[in-house]
Amino acid sequence: MNLMTNKQRRHTPEQIIRKLAEGHKLMAGGMTVAEVCREFGIAESSWHRWLSRYGGMKAADAKRLKELELENSVLKKLLAEAELDKEMLKHLNEGKW
To answer: Looking at residues 2-27, what average pLDDT do you find?
Structure first.
């Protein structure tokens, strides 16, 4: 049994998509989801989460999704900073400093 010590293994979206495709081939050959998960060293919950998130995607789609998620987080941060600046200027203008 492979026990990890306080360290989670992270899979890239490309790796996940490859494992999903390989897993589907193994299941078509007669393996169960539990056996496929054991083969990959992942929990069944991970398999189902991956399937719901990346099922049907190609590696290029997953890469683009990751890029968009990163861009979205940067834009959210910029918006939050702009809102704070706006609020600070509003207070300064009202003389509440």
So the answer is: 80
Nearby residues of 40 by Cβ (< 8 Å), 6 or more positions away: 19, 23, 47
CA angle 64, 65, 70 (to 5 degrees): 95
**Domains in the chain: boundaries:** 13-94
CA-to-CA separations, 41 to 1, 6, 34, 35, 47, in angstroms, rounded = 10, 16, 10, 10, 10
What's the predicted TM-score (pTM) here?
Answer: 0.60
> Rounded to whole angstroms, how far apart are CA atoms 29 and 44?
18
Q: Is 50 exposed, middle or buried (CB count within 10 Å of its CB: 0-12, 13-18, 19+)?
A: buried
Read off the pLDDT of each residue in 22-45 and give the average, rounded to a whole number: 95
pLDDT at 4: 45
